[in-house]
Design brief:
The structure holds two protein chains of two kinds. By secondary structure, chain A is α/β, with parallel strands linked by helices. Chain A is built from 16 helices and 34 strands. Chain A has five domains: about 130 residues, Rossmann fold, CATH 3.40.50; about 180 residues, 3-Layer(bba) Sandwich (FAD/NAD(P)-binding domain); about 60 residues, no CATH class; about 160 residues, FAD/NAD(P)-binding domain; about 60 residues, Alpha-Beta Plaits, CATH 3.30.70. Chain A has a five-stranded parallel beta sheet. A five-stranded parallel beta sheet of chain A has the order 20-27-21-22-23. In chain A, helix 6 packs across helix 7 and helix 10 packs parallel to helix 11. Chain A is globular. The two termini of chain A are about 30 Å apart. Chain B has a single domain, classed as Rossmann fold (3-Layer(aba) Sandwich). Chain B is built from five helices and four strands. Chain B has a four-stranded parallel beta sheet with strand order 2-1-3-4, sandwiched between helices. In chain B, helix 1 links the parallel strand 1 and strand 2. The longest helix of chain B has 18 residues. Chain B is globular and about 40 Å long. Classes of the chains: A alpha/beta, B alpha/beta. At the A-B interface, helix 3, helix 4, helix 5, helix 15 and helix 16 of A face helix 1, strand 2, helix 2 and helix 3 of B. The complex binds flavin-adenine dinucleotide (FAD), iron/sulfur cluster (2 copies) and FE2/S2 (inorganic) cluster (FES). The site of FE2/S2 (inorganic) cluster has 13 residues of chain B, from helix 3.
Chain lengths: ~650, ~150
């Protein structure tokens, strides 16, 4: 560029976050001595409106054609200052940021002098970069007017209904034969004790009826390519061996099927047939043949069963469907902690130790006992029931796969279970072994008091061990009552382990398809934990529900609605601006060696004949700007915009001026 | 005795994982040695071998490349490629008379702020043991031109 570079450097105090550690005035004076710097200044909060105005004003006043802001991380405020630069009349790509907070004053607080030195180096490196930056124009691409929602628990259901109501064509993909997720297994929901099915089923039916929702159950996402506005998605519709359009849900196949195996939906507490629906209110009410257990007796195809309808076909193949969507919501939910790993509690060893979700099925009207709570060992009504809270949550024991976080639902559902017991069994005493009761939601603390009044007994302490009387199958629970400071042993009829919620195994594949990240707890990482908990770092991909972290139904619904709103914005806007950070090939220098062709993960590089010469070119729409091709080109023919060799080399040179 | 040797280390970090992890170390106020200066690139796949050679030729005492864990690259496979490049480069710099430990590649995710602090500490310890870049000891005159930029 021929025009003389005139760079403005703006140093932020960030209150005392930066200015409390280093001398910002000194940094400003230092910046003024750097080549191309036409102006330098500091301000308390550069990101505030006056701070941004300062940038705009100084650009005009000092006729600047480049800006550097030394403040927080570019991952936080790059967009803010790019905008201010643009509004000041300078191309936003002529701006760059020096991270002197997250990567300097916050991590070297105890060595302020060295932090100062580092700040100078970082500013000098960024000024060098700024002197080499080139103006770029973002490209605008149209957005496909459709969305994809993966997972149809309450989160995916809510998000799909919101999107559909906003007039957006929504593909809802669920891997199980029915939608509903964990909520469809619950009996009642805290703290209002609404019956779970009664509030969920209408929503499930709405999903099926909504003309804007295309529901694909027993289906999995196999491939995703493209970018915000233009994702191409491949979905495998697994064969149910039943034609959905022909099946009328009569269930005659199930009646005649001779095979019996444990129903996964009921955690194996009830049997199902090889021809089955997971539960009577399933949506869609279409039968599925489980080929792994089917013995091909053909009874279900016979006269008395599906005969005339001819809905069953054992040779029906899987279908691969491709759809194009503008945005994606991940709502793949959670799994339960494998509490068998806590051997001291004897789950799966002692009959009368069950998990919270098994208890939901035992007390649920649609469960195996029709809602009558019985001891698994002898079918007797329990009179004393222990609840072990935080079973695998708030536990640092990594060896057992236990989780350090709070699962956020177990306190409340254990209170709910205690209430349900008291309601159903006269004279029953529930004992809740807890560390803290976390009843933080609306009307939750009141619910806690209610259970206390109703006769729930609360023992503050962890259960150390459970043993069993081999004859009566009663359980002996050893714990420490930390309030009394005394050990305690108790004989109980039954124990319910409120096991932790953990990241779903099935989220992993989606995570890699969409290049998402995990947070330390293993759940999906959000764009910002406070200000943007429903977005991800992949543009156009959003999160709803438990896949992002433990939460109860009210919070899941709010999160899902937020994700739907966020996912509908680009669709309603109709177009998105993409970062012009893509590679370009200089045909003059390209030798046609094709090194770059195999390297691009998106197949964006291709060989073309230009003026009889074979040269590479990059398809801008496909290129995502990783820069892999450019760093491999032996001829230096590929330029990675905004991260050019010249720009990075200038930073390295500036780095070396520090000694 | 001369004052303690404080290494100058160049960090080249991918935007999506390690740069974010380093930011997290900041938000969590973890303290680590102030010897690394970071250049942000979108993906470690962008790592041109020339960057490493340039850094060493201008006197960097160490170069630390860090990106997403294998399998987690935001662009699917950039880190596979840079991992191979770094492995080769470590051999190459040895030919130039640098200890291979002066170049290191690590994998630090966006949630591993504590790991980033550890990685830096470890790198600083290693370089302190190795001493300053041999070129620095040889004298500034030889610094420039020891490795010509255009050859890579
Ligand atoms: C024992 C127990 C009792 C509870 N009681 C209450 C209560 O009383 N009140 C309350 O507010 N909350 C309660 N909760 C919490 C409540 O269950 C959750 O908040 C809620 O179910 C989370 O909904 P979700 O849609 O995020 O996840 P999920 O319900 O797990 O749904 C996720 C869905 O995604 C599907 N899926 C997963 N991976 C894929 C994939 N790769 N492709 C396609 N589909 C996929 C799954 O099959 C599932 O249908 C309770 C939880 C437990 C464990
Ligand atoms: S690697 Fe470089 S020279 Fe070889 S084809 Fe690609 S652009 Fe051309
Ligand atoms: S920068 Fe190169 S390798 Fe990376 S996406 Fe673009 S064309 Fe492909
Ligand atoms: S984006 Fe981090 S290594 Fe590729």
């Amino acid at each position: 560029m021929d025009e003389e570079k005139r760079i403005g450097v703006f140093v932020c105090h960030c209150g005392t976050n930066i200015a409390g550690v280093i001398n910002v005035k000194e940094l400003v004076e230092y910046a003024k001595t750097l080549p191309h710097v036409a102006h330098a200044e500091d301000y308390t909060y550069m990101c505030s409106t006056p701070g941004q105005s300062m940038i705009k004003d100084r650009i005009k006043e000092f006729n600047l054609n480049g800006t550097v802001v030394a403040a927080c991380s570019p991952r936080l405020h790059e967009p803010t200052f790019r905008k201010a630069t643009e509004e000041g009349g300078v191309n936003s790509f002529l701006f760059t940021m020096s991270n002197i907070r997250e990567q300097d004053t916050w991590v070297h607080m105890e060595e302020p002098e060295k932090a100062m030195e580092k700040a100078k180096d970082l500013v000098r490196m960024e000024v060098a970069r700024a002197s080499k930056l080139e103006p770029l124009t973002p490209k605008t691409v149209p957005v496909e007017k459709a969305a994809l929602v993966i997972g149809a628990g309450i989160a995916g259901i809510q998000a799909s209904l919101e999107l559909a109501d906003a007039g957006i064509k929504t593909y809802l993909v669920e891997k199980e034969p029915s939608i509903g997720g964990m909520m469809s297994r619950l009996d009642k929901t805290f703290p209002t004790l609404d019956c779970s099915q009664c509030i969920l089923t209408p929503k499930m039916v709405d999903v099926e009826r909504n003309p804007n929702i295309e529901l694909m159950t027993y289906s999995e996402v196999e491939g995703i390519s493209g970018y915000i506005g233009n994702f191409d998605v491949t979905i495998r519709k697994k064969s149910r061996y039943v034609y959905e359009d022909k099946c009328n849900g009569c269930g005659k196949c199930q009646e005649v099927c001779p095979v019996s195996r444990p129903n996964e939906f009921d955690l194996g507490l009830q049997p199902r047939k090889a021809a089955y629906v997971p539960f009577p209110q399933a949506v869609p009410l279409k039968f599925t043949i489980d080929m792994d257990s089917c013995i091909k007796c053909d009874l279900c195809k016979g006269e008395e069963a599906c005969g005339e309808l001819e809905a069953i076909d054992f040779d029906k193949p899987d279908e691969l469907i491709t759809v194009k969507v503008g945005t994606i919501i991940v709502a793949t939910g959670f799994d339960m902690y494998d509490v068998e790993r806590k051997e001291e509690w004897g789950y799966k060893v002692f009959d009368n130790v069950v998990t919270g979700i098994e208890f939901e099925r035992l007390i649920g009207a649609s469960g195996p006992t029709g809602g009558k709570v019985i001891r698994p060992s002898d079918g007797k009504t329990p009179k004393t029931v222990g609840f072990v809270l935080c079973a695998g949550s708030r536990d640092q024991d990594e060896e057992d796969g236990a989780k350090p976080y709070c699962s956020r639902v177990c306190c409340m559902y254990s209170l709910k279970h205690a209430h349900q017991l008291i309601e159903k069994i006269p004279g029953v005493v529930p004992y809740l072994f807890y560390m803290d009761i976390r009843s933080f939601g609306k009307a939750y603390e009141e619910f806690y008091y209610r259970i206390q009044r109703e006769g729930g007994k609360f023992i503050r302490g962890r259960v150390a061990r459970i043993t069993e009387d081999p004859v009566t199958k009663n359980l002996f629970v050893t714990a420490e009552d930390t309030l009394l400071g005394a050990p305690l042993e108790m004989e109980l009829d039954m124990v319910v382990l409120a096991n932790a919620v953990v990241p779903a195994e099935s989220t992993q594949k989606i995570k890699s398809l969409l290049t998402l990240s995990n947070s330390p707890d293993g759940f999906l990482l959000e764009a910002h934990p406070k200000l943007n908990p429903m977005s991800t770092t992949t543009d156009g991909v959003f999160l709803a529900g438990m896949c992002q972290g433990p939460r109860d139904i009210p919070d899941v619904v709010a999160h899902a609605a937020a994700a739907a709103a966020a996912a509908s914005i680009p669709i309603h806007r109709g177009s998105v601006t993409l970062e012009p950070i893509y590679a370009i090939v200089d045909p003059e220098h390209c030798g046609g060696c094709a090194t770059c062709i195999g390297l691009c993960p998106y197949g964006a590089t291709e060989l073309k004949t230009v003026d009889d010469k074979l040269v590479a070119s990059v398809n801008e729409a496909k290129c995502k700007g990783c820069g892999t091709c450019g760093s491999a080109c032996p001829s230096g023919a590929i330029k990675m915009q905004h991260f050019t060799n010249e720009q990075i080399m200038s930073e390295i040179e500036a780095f070396a001026q520090g000694w | 005795m001369a004052e303690e040797f404080e290494p100058n280390i160049l960090g080249i970090l991918c935007n999506w994982c390690t740069y974010a992890g380093a930011d997290l170390a900041g938000t969590s106020r973890m303290q680590y040695p102030p010897n690394v200066r970071v250049i942000r690139i979108m993906c470690t796949g962008r790592l041109d071998p020339a960057f490493v050679l340039k850094a060493l030729s201008v006197g960097a005492d160490g170069v630390l490349i860090s990106g997403c864990h294998i399998g987690d690259c935001h662009y699917l496979a950039g880190n596979f490629k840079s991992r191979r490049r770094v492995a080769l480069l470590r051999k190459l710099i040895e030919e130039y008379g640098y200890d291979r430990e002066r170049l290191r590649m690590t994998f630090v995710s966006a949630s591993e702020g504590a790991l980033w602090a550890e990685v830096v500490q470890d790198m600083v310890n290693t370089i302190k043991k190795l001493g300053p870049n041999p070129l620095k000891q040889a004298g500034a005159a030889q610094l420039e031109g020891a490795v010509a930029d255009d050859e890579f």
